[in-house]
Structure formats: C-alpha cells, structure tokens
Amino acid sequence: MMIDHKEIFTKSNLLSLFRLFLSIPLWFLLDNLHLESTRYITAFVCLVAIGTDFLDGYLARRLNEVTEVGKIIDPLADKVAVGIVALKLYLVGEMPSYYFFIIIGRDTLIFLGGILLSYKIRKVIPSNTLGKITVTILGVVILMIILKVNRDSILFLSFYTISILMIFASLIAYIIRTVEFLKQKNYESI
What total number of domains does the chain contain? Predict the structure, then answer.
C-alpha cells in the first residue's frame, strides 16, 4: 500500500490525530478525579474527543477526503483514547476489572485482526457503523463514570449493559466481516 503524502494532512485526518493526542491530557487529568472541577474538565475533554470522532468522519465524506491513512488513524485514535481512559479509570479504581478487560480485549482483537487482514488483502478496511456506535456508547459510559453518575441508577445500568452487549456484538460482526473479506476473490471492491 503506497501512501500519498497529501492523504496525511487532510482536515479529517488532523481531527483524528488531535483526538489521538487528547489521550495525553486525559491520562493526567484522570489522576485528579477526587477534585470535582477536574471531573468536569475531564468530561469536557472527553466530549471534545467524541465530537472529533463524529466530525472527522463527516468531513472525510463531505470533503471527499476518505483516505487509506484516515482509515487507519480514525479507528486507532478511537482505540487509543478509549484504551487510555479505560486503563486509567481501572488503575484509579473507578472501573471494574472485567469491564476494563472486555474493552481492551475487544480492541486488541480488532486491531490485530485489522493488521492481519490489511496485510492479506493489501487494503485498509474502514470502520463500520456498529463499531462507531459501540465506541459512542462506551464514551457515554465513561463520561458517566467520570461524572460520578449513580451506578445503581436505571440510566447508568442501561448504558452499561448496552455497552457490554455492543462490545460483543461489534466483535462478532467484525469477525464475520473479516471472514467475508477473506473469502472474496477480488478485493478491488473494498
């Protein structure tokens, strides 16, 4: 896969890179969740990250900037941002270990599967809608954890349960999609 340098510095890719780099301040902000003001600042930074996730895809399609680089950077930024926040929330005791491990397990499997699939078919497969919805729901759960929403409330329990179901559904859908791509004889339609 040859990468044209013009493909790197598109508006949508820069937004994805910005989201990727937001992981750094988030890591440090999450050290101070005992301060209410830090919780609100952290939630705001998370909302900015979620906003860039929607905006980069919109701009890529709208400005005809869908690139092979963007197909890599966008999901990578999602996985790194969610992974960093989940890891820190786990380390500071705000996220249960099983929830952390299913998030990281799903993202690791999808990431490694994506690398192998890209190597095999010589193309990068873009994110799918189910994966984007899953990341958004995870983002909502993470925001609720950061903002100390009552974990026994129906709102929290609903999003939490849905997020777990979506994690497994999106992983299964990704596996099915990968198998279908590998069965195709002609990869040009991807």
Answer: 1
**Which residue has tokens 């890529």?**
60
Is the four-CA dihedral 104, 171, 79, 153 of positive or negative sign? negative
3 pLDDT band (50/70/90 cuts)?
Answer: low
Identify whether 26 is part of a domain.
yes
Residue at 190 is within a domain: no
Packed helices 154-183 and 97-121: angle between N→C axes, nearest 10 degrees:
20
This prediction has a pTM of 0.86
Has residue 169 been placed in a domain? Answer: yes
pLDDT of residue 188: 54
DSSP 97: H
Place of tokens 């830090």: 38
Tell me the residue range of the domain where 23 lies.
Answer: 5-185
